[in-house]
């Protein structure tokens, strides 16, 4: 069941992009249901069986679902004894191959899952590093303009010592420092809301 989903994604044998005979497949599947009700019912059945039989292998649970959906028992009853014996012989012969294939697919799924987790981890680390770099830059910018301005007097005194062309950037740096590093959002409006650049400032 799980392997079938992968066949429908890009790169799978039933995908529009990769199926060489897609038009033929489309014609063959004209009578296929256009909704996902059947799949949802199967997954609900799978979920129930997994909870009822937690130690069962996925392939065994899938077999139970297919056995029910395909009405295999009724079909077996309709066979004559010789044919039934032949069918069971074929099934026993194919079982080891199916189990082997299932284990291979399980390994591939687990490897892909690990790759996705590692990729997410690397992305989170990258974002954290970018955040740290940003905060370090803000701290460095603050040091260049005399450190944190803690009161109105420090604001006025430091602005008087800064070139007019750099005053806006200095105020922005102080706001970023308080907002992102000190997490003091309420004090920003009070300290800087009335700040205006006048001639001579």
Notes on the protein architecture:
The protein has 201 residues and is mostly helical. The protein has helices at 2-8, 22-28, 37-52, 58-69, 72-77, 81-144, 152-160, 164-181, 186-192. Helix 3 crosses helix 4 and helix 6 packs across helix 8 (164-181). Mean pLDDT is 81; it is low at 197-201. Residues 118-145 form a coiled coil. One of its GO terms (molecular function) is 3'-5'-RNA exonuclease activity. Keywords: Coiled coil, Hydrolase, Nuclease. InterPro entries: Oligoribonuclease.
* Overall 3D form: rod-shaped
The total strand number stands at: 0
Strand share of the residues? under 5%
Order of helices and strands: HHHHHHHHH
**Rg over alpha carbons:** 34 Å
Low-pLDDT residue spans: 197-201
Structural class: mainly alpha
Q: Please, what is the average pLDDT? A: 81
Helix content: over 70%
Distance between the amino and carboxyl termini? 73 Å
Main sheet makeup:
none
What is the overall number of helices? 9
Key structural traits:
single chain; 201 residues; mainly alpha; 9 helices; rod-shaped; disordered C terminus
Architecture blueprint of SSEs:
Blueprint: H1 2-8, H2 22-28, H3 37-52, H4 58-69, H5 72-77, H6 81-144, H7 152-160, H8 164-181, H9 186-192
Helix pairs in contact: 3-4, 6-8
């Amino acid at each position: 069941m799980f392997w079938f989903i992968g066949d429908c994604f890009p790169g799978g044998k039933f995908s529009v992009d990769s199926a060489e005979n897609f038009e033929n497949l489309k014609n063959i599947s004209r009578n296929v249901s256009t909704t996902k009700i059947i799949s949802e019912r199967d997954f609900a059945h799978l979920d129930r069986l997994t909870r009822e039989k937690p130690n069962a292998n996925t392939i065994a649970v899938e077999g139970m679902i297919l056995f029910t959906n395909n009405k295999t028992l009724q079909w077996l009853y309709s066979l004559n004894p010789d044919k039934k014996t032949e069918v069971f012989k074929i099934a026993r012969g194919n079982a080891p191959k199916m189990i082997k294939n299932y284990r291979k697919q399980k390994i591939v799924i687990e490897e892909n899952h690990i790759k996705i987790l590692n990729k997410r981890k690397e992305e989170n680390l990258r974002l954290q590093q970018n955040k740290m770099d940003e905060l370090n830059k803000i701290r460095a910018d603050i040091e260049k303009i005399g450190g944190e301005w803690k009161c109105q007097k420090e604001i006025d005194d430091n602005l008087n010592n800064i070139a007019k062309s750099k005053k806006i950037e200095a105020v922005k740096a102080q706001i970023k420092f308080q907002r992102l590093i000190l997490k003091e959002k309420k004090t920003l409006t009070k300290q800087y809301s009335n700040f205006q650049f006048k001639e001579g400032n």
